[in-house]
Amino acid sequence: MDFKDPLDEMTGGIASGGSSEGGAEVELGHLPVMAGEVLETLAPRPGSLQIDATLGGAGHAERALEASSPDGRLLGLDADPAAIARSARRLARFGDRVVLRQVNFERLAEVAPAAGFGQVDGLLLDLGLSSFQLVDVERGFGFRAGGRLDMRFDTSRGRSAADLLASYDQKELTALFSRYGEEPFSGRIARTIVETRSHSPVETAEQLAALVERAVPAPKARRTHPATRVFQALRIAVNDELGALEAGLAASLVLLRPGGRLVVLSYHSLEDRIVKRFIAAEQRGCVCPPEVPVCVCGRSPKLRSLGKSRTPSDEEVAANPRSRSARLRGAERLAA
Ligand SMILES: C[S@@+](CC[C@H](N)C(=O)[O-])C[C@H]1O[C@@H](n2cnc3c(N)ncnc32)[C@H](O)[C@@H]1O
After folding, report:
1. Residue 258: enclosing H or E segment and its boundaries?
2. How far does residue 216's CA lie from ligand 1's centre (Å)?
């Protein structure tokens, strides 16, 4: 499927209309996480080219464009058509300094050069979902959502969470909850789903949340909803989030020019592990086994880690509790 047609309208002279009022609405809807740290690490300068591969509400993108005034340019991607439309309104004032594409960043390596962003100074991946998606009852991301369990970032393609719940057998459901949710009660939850759906389909977020609550033992103290891991697992599977992350990280090596910066904000350990290992492997370069005395693989380091991971300040977590699980990692592209 070609994503380009609807996107061409968003290129350059993005749809106008949001301006400051739209911006205020967006800002309230989704607060950009660790915005100061992200900007400090990306360090966008006038004349630079940046990619924000996860636009969401365009909070980070707007800051990067402001910091790179008057002529820095930004390619913004999001798989979600609603995020692209919202960002187009918010970023309209930057005119042809912005190019938007509705596309999954797993296709970054091909989409960015085609949009004129073949060698860039910065790439941001702010993973997961935005507050807009979380509160939209039609999308089925939140526990109390009354609509059908959809959970697709790109609502025009792929299978919804309700489809997976209806078609996976008990073994597949158990594996899914355990692999992508690290859920200790995955077997019990999968069994309850299979039993329940034999007489009534599990189609809404509300139904699923209640079902998980019934299936797992009540904890003594509870910090999060008992269905948190199950929802996370479904979302990851529906959007192949970890596969997309691997592809997006690999694309950074091709797209970043020497000295260019990669910044990734992840929100759970499965994502962070992938980012951490990727940076460590590309920093090491050589992949020869330790028993080989002299390097025969010929691989050289491609990245320099920008230090330990960072987490939001207590003040930010208090002001924006959704930032609490964020972890930022940064790396700089080395000369080939
Ligand atoms: C946490 S939000 C980004 C928020 C944004 N940084 C801001 O300041 O408003 C993540 C966004 O990335 C999008 N997204 C997640 N995975 C994606 C993927 N593989 N490809 C494209 N977009 C993705 C989601 O649709 C969501 O809008």
Report:
1. strand 256-266
2. 31
Q: Is 218 helix (H, G, I), strand (E, B) or coil?
A: coil
**Tokens at 212, concatenated:** 């998980």
Output the furthest CA–CA distance in the chain (Å, rounded): 64
Instruction: Tell me which CATH code domain 4-132+241-333 carries.
Output: 3.40.50.150
The vertex-168 CA angle with 184 and 178, nearest 5°, equals 15
DSSP characters over 80-94: -HHHHHHHHHHTGGG
**Omega into 70 within 30° of 0, i.e. cis?**
yes
Q: Which atom of ligand 1 is nearest to the CA of 61?
A: 8
**C-alpha of residue 323 to centroid of ligand 1, in Å:** 14
Query: Among residues 278, 291, 193, 283, which one has the least CA distance to residue 233?
Result: 193
Which of 54, 87, 156, 252 has most ligand 1 atoms within 8 Å of its beta carbon, as the pocket-test mutant? Answer: 54
Q: Compute the C-alpha angle 224/150/204, nearest 5°.
A: 65
**pTM score:** 0.89
Give me the residue spans of the domains in the chain. Answer: 4-132+241-333, 155-238
pLDDT in tens, 228-276: 999 999 999 999 999 999 999 999 999 999 999 999 999 999 999 999 9
Residues having CB closer than 6 A to ligand 1 are: 30, 32, 54, 56-60, 77-80, 83, 104-106, 126, 128-130, 153, 244
| Tens-digit pLDDT profile for residues 147-176 | 789 999 999 999 999 999 999 999 999 999
* CATH number attached to the domain at 155-238: 1.10.150.170
